[in-house]
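Async update (no meeting this week)

Hi team, since we skipped the sync, here's where things stand on the single-chain job. The sequence we agreed to prioritize is pasted below, unchanged from the tracker. I ran it this morning and attached the output directly underneath so nobody has to dig for it. Comments welcome in thread, and please keep replies under the output.
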Amino acid sequence: MVSITENGERILVCLSSSPSNRKVIDAAARMAKAFHAELSAIYVKRPNYESLPEADRIRLQNNIQTAEQYGAAIITITGDSVPVQIAEYAHISGITKIVVGRSSAKRQHFWSKASLTEQIILNAPDIDVFIIPDSSVEIKQQSQKLNPADLVHPTWKDSLISLLLLAAATSIGFLFTAFGFSEANIITIFILGSLIIAVFTVSPIYSIVSSLASVLLFNWFFIEPKFSFHTYETEYAVTFVIMLVSSLITGTLANKLKDNARHSSREAFRAKVLFDTNQLLQKAGCADDVIRITAQQIKVLSGRDVTIFSPADGGKPGNGIEVYSLPYCVRTYGDDNEAEIAQWAFLNQTIAGAHTEKYENAKSLYYPISINGYCYGVIAIYLNGGRLEAFESSVFSSIIGECALALEGIRNAEEKEQAAMAVRNEQLRSNLLRSVSHDIRTPLTSISGNASNLMTHYEQLDPETLKQIFSDIYDDSEWMIGLVENLLSISRIENGQMDLHLSLEVVNDVIEEALRHVDKNADQHHIEVQQGNDVLIARMDARLITQVLINLVNNAIKNTQAGSEIRIRSGQAGSIIYVYVEDNGPGIPNDMKPHIFEMFYTGQSAVSDGRRGIGLGLALCKSIVEAHGGTITLTDNVPSGCCFSFSLPAGEVTINE
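Output:
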């Protein structure tokens, strides 16, 4: 199968209210499938759109929905020249083929205007134009003349406005006559009245009627003999014609300007809504925000109620859907089988519901939120028997497309984050296995070798040698027990499974308890505990803080030379207790300090005791201190060495007398 990007084919089908347009859309869809091309559908909305009969509007909307069901991108453009607009869009969008129906209009004379298809070919000579022929029945339907009554939609409001303005123009004419103004000024007043009527009335018929009425009123009231349609001067016949033509021209121009202003206003509103939607969706932090913003924008644009159906299990087909409740939209309606309709739209990723082939009697129109074969849910727009215009349908499709893109971006970001997390976890597991394998091998080899010596040469060994072997086995076992304890502790903290048993404890008592369990090489260093006169009490889990002190002291013992000084002190500042572990060893290079509390980071030490460690001690200290709500830091101990300090919340003892 050849992809769109490989062959570059893009097919554009022209939409209209013609009965034969459905055949044109079907042919374009088959052509797009055969060429593996991208399908687009364009409708050029002319200024006289409002005067289209209801039957033509319904047929146009059905044709648009048919194109959407074929997966076509719907484009609505406002303009006077249909072929020029189609050709310009085709050139801008890289269209390679245009599919259009055969126009029933025929050229009566050689100077007559060319047909639509001929004009498209003339304006887009470099694009292949495919003309779909009509059947005889369809040609007959298209050739039927429009009933003039369909263009006239009289209302009491427009009729009253016209009568009042004509009466006002006549009254001003009498006033001008009383002041001796010329007839040219009175003619100008009637032309101005016709112009105002054209501006403030809806149907164009009022502009025509007011122009004719202005001529008749001027002749009746202001031309001798008055109160008749006769005139003594033959030149007035020319004046009447000029006045009628001027009124018709000004009225027609006013109607066109009014239509253009209305279309411009709607296009500006559409652009603003789409722009606001795009801006809001870019700021959305999660899928729920995207769905909520989309529903709000559709509600603002159409004033209709909106219901969201979200997938029950990550959007996987066949798992059903569930209603997504909106906090601002009270659902006082609903189709009896709305879940079934939404399910069908979700699984088929096709519009369903009101005025469509599927569930056409529904009260709502169900739009799937889908992109790249993945459906994120369904948006139902309540129509209550009404219809969406081409303008509304195009905007809704654009908003829902923006929603799908935003949801796609969020899903891709989540999948990327999950993949990155999986890589990090795999890296941590690899580091753990490598470090544990390397560091456990040394004590296990020592234990195994010493055990083998005891088994084979026990009777030949003197008491001092036996004591040394037993001591080595014990030390190696204790080191491995400490390693396993650190592993278990940090895994419980990282998984959120370690419960803190907080109580008020004397800090110096915890320090003394920790010193009883430090490394056996502690006697090779001078360890000093500085105690103040005040008794410091902190709220802590004594067992875990003891582990922190053991790890910090053992770290100092391991990374400083024999005979070095290690000092432990504590103090209080406000409601915080600080504990310091200082040494006068070689210190830690600056490039290593940012990583010192990372898991599996071991660094390099020239005075290490031979067991490299797997970099869990300081990481465990950081996790425990932060679980208590404190912080742990590393600074230089001037003139040499390191200073590790951590904070704990101070506690108060209440004495009941």
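Quick observations from my side:
The first strand starts at residue 10 and ends at 14.
The domain at 284-418 is CATH 3.30.450.40 (Beta-Lactamase).
Reply here if anything looks off.
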